[in-house]
Amino acid sequence: MGDTQTPILALREIHKAFGGITAIQAFNLDIMPGEIVALVGDNGAGKSTLVKIIAGVFPATSGQIVLGGEEVHFANPRQSQDRGIQVVYQDLALADSQPVYMNMFLGREKVKGLLRRLDRKAMISETEELVRALDVRIPSARARIRELSGGQRQGVAIARATHGAGKLILMDEPTAALGVAETARVENSIRTLKADNRAILIVSHNLDQVFRLADRICVLRRGVQVGVKRTSETTNNEIVSMITGLISS
Question: By residue range, what is the domain housing residue 19?
Fold first, then answer.
């Protein structure tokens, strides 16, 4: 990863206020291609707010979002998705009654012919190829979401994000409530995305996971960016101290 590369995402002096309450202030971060950055902090630190700003759920009060070297302004999540940003939220936002392949193409279904019928064969084939590449072990692309385990659902959500993301994937607690084996499988999927040169911002309370996956760790405390550390140059204890406020950098 060369220093001369353009960041996939550059956040400049991001500030967000809700009425008189400041949620994020003076936040700066670059994320490079093929890099995983972890965003950590206690509940209420501003992590989800920051993810939602990048995803276009609501605008920053001030500051700049630069995507691939170009400043962008998102009025809604669809605009951020159209620019290659995808989010895997904690609640996954999957359609339980629909099969895996329909979830993979939700809102962008493939059609064929003059009557624009659903091209189920093409969607199933593409879904099978993607879940195989990410080692998401599901019974079938035709299986309904409600028939899958928690880890399988999370794998499908990540695969769907990968399918739509050209640049950046945001992950909010991607392995919350999963067992050890399913967590390991999801983490392997995340490593596959990194190897594919995707930029990933991951929110996690699991510091062991953060140290396994992230290249850098960004700490937020009460909306303030406490610091950014290279994972190889810090320790679990130092990050905990930054989160709790025992040290400031």
Answer: 9-97+164-244
